[in-house]
Amino acid sequence: MVCRMSRSKTAASSDIGYLMPTANATRATHGITPPNSTIQVLFGQGDGTFRPFVKTATPFSVVTSFLADFNGDNKPDIAALGNGNESLNLFMSNGDGTFQAPLAFQTPFYPKGIQTMGDLNADGSVDLVQFSAAASIAVSTQTLSLWQSVPTISFSAPQLDFATQSVSTSSAASSITLVNDGNAPLSVSKITASGSFAQTNTCTGAVATGQSCTVNVTFTPTSTGPTTGTLTFTDNAYPTTQSLVLTGLGNSSDFSISASPSSTSVSAGATATYTASLAPIDGFTGTVQLACAGAPAKATCTLSKSSVTLDGTNSVNVTATVTTTAPTTTSLMAPSSISPFDGAFRPSVLWACVGFLPVAGLLMIRRRKLAAIAAFGTVAFALVACGGGSSGGGGTTPGTPSGTHSLKITGMDGGLVHDSTVSLTVQ
What we know:
Elements: E1 2-5, E2 15-21, E3 37-42, E4 54-58, E5 62-68, E6 77-82, E7 85-91, E8 103-106, E9 110-118, E10 127-133, E11 143-147, E12 153-155, E13 159-166, E14 174-180, E15 186-193, E16 197-201, E17 206-207, E18 212-219, E19 225-235, E20 241-251, E21 254-260, E22 263-266, E23 271-281, E24 285-293, E25 300-303, E26 307-311, E27 316-323, E28 328-332, H1 347-385, E29 393-397, E30 403-413, E31 416-426
Parallel strand pairs: 13-20, 22-31
Antiparallel strand pairs: 1-2, 2-3, 3-4, 5-6, 6-7, 7-8, 9-10, 10-11, 12-14, 14-18, 15-17, 15-19, 16-18, 19-20, 21-23, 23-27, 24-26, 24-30, 25-27, 28-29, 30-31
């Protein structure tokens, strides 16, 4: 049997595939294992010649076949029936002239051959039409069977098992990957998680052949002890629903946080320290995130650790340091080029001031207006030099306001949140 194979729509040459029986092949009858055959592919070189063939062994003697891309990977596959073989077999191409081991689909009747192929339900995938007989010895065909391409789902794990989780807290998400291993697009209409489990997913729209999507599941126990749930998929694969088991264990473990001293007093500009102690309850293990809030204006509260890990047995201490700000005073001095008047009697300055007056009078007589203006300016300068000026000024910048303030040191792990409140008095 010869099948014409085209490598691609743009290929410059065509290839030939042969379904070759073995040298001692004989016609098989029902109940007798037929001899094997091989699939042989000769790649065209574009000049009417071919390269040496590549072959794939088959477990039966093929008597009828069709060539098509059955899994949407743009590689031609083979659908085949064999002597004495009551199943439809798909040989998926590796793209190099060889084929994978056949996928067998059991037929309800004795197949007589594959009549035709095509997209018979307009879903973008290749379907097959097969004629069959009710008995192996029947001469004529009696049944027409339609094989529709369908999506097939596989999962990255058979179930999801969660570690021990504190009651009323949510676990980190665990993911599972859904893969469409079939030969038709997968359409997921609904995904649900039951019990104490919740899910989010990326399985929106059609999942193409060979593509995948991800489901993220979280566990939030509502009571202590083991619990189970189900992750259910509703889609157009066969069967139309698939389910995975979810398991988890809830416990009553918790943690506590206490801070000391409960109150302290400092002057503005000083620091205050507190010690927060975190202890596990009922074997609690996990990482607790820490925060400090409530520091007054112009003060900060810092923690020696942003998180601590509890081992179920031992307590862990963290230091909280509150730094306050002292008020500051500033002053403004007069410019150094003009000496401030300090009330001290200076004879030399007095005589200099008196000496300016005759000069001003003389100028007023000789130069009239212009001279008068210059004279008055000179007199003004003399008055300033003789004792004018300012002593300057200043101000105060406030620091951390006085009073009593409440600070809260908080520990968080998932849904578990605990805090301890301390008092700070700034004087």
